[in-house]
Amino acid sequence: MAGDAWRADTLEELAKKAGIDPANLVKTVEEYNKGCEAGHDAGGKKPNNLRKIEKAPFWAGYAGMSVHHTMGGVVINTDTQVIDRHGQVIPGLHAVGEVTGGIHGSNRLGGNAIADIFTFGRLTGIAIANGK
To answer: C-alpha angle with apex 44: 18 to 70, nearest 5 degrees?
Structure first.
């Protein structure tokens, strides 16, 4: 094990293993369990997903934020040519896949990277073959 997940028979023991304050963990779990009983989670969890935390063994795992996707990217036209900040084509520069942003809009297309690569890669080949 890499040391980023812990198992314990009590919440206090789990907190110590995870390096957090036992009193805070117990209080947080108590508040969460009350929310489960009331059908409302202060953290925003949907009621049908609420499950009380009450039976050992208890588990905790490290979770941290990281950037795995950014919106936007370079703007391209339908021939995959890169467009500069003045709206002009940069001759000889094409872009495909997740580096692009202009055609994709403002929302993530999760799971579609392979389709993007093949589709825009093919369009790039056609554009270059046509002298663009």
So the answer is: 80
Q: For residue 108, what pLDDT is reported?
A: 53
pTM: 0.51
Cα dist from 109 to 5, 12, 28, whole Å: 31, 42, 35
Reduce the DSSP state of residue 37 to 3 states and report it.
Answer: helix
Q: Kindly list the domain boundaries of the chain, sorted by start residue.
A: 5-61, 75-129
Beta-strand (E) ranges in the chain? 5-8, 58-61, 75-76, 81-83, 89-94
CATH for the stretch 5-61: 3.90.700.10
Res 61 pLDDT > 60: yes
Closest CA to 62 of 4, 22, 113: 4
CA pair distance 5, 14, nearest whole angstrom: 10
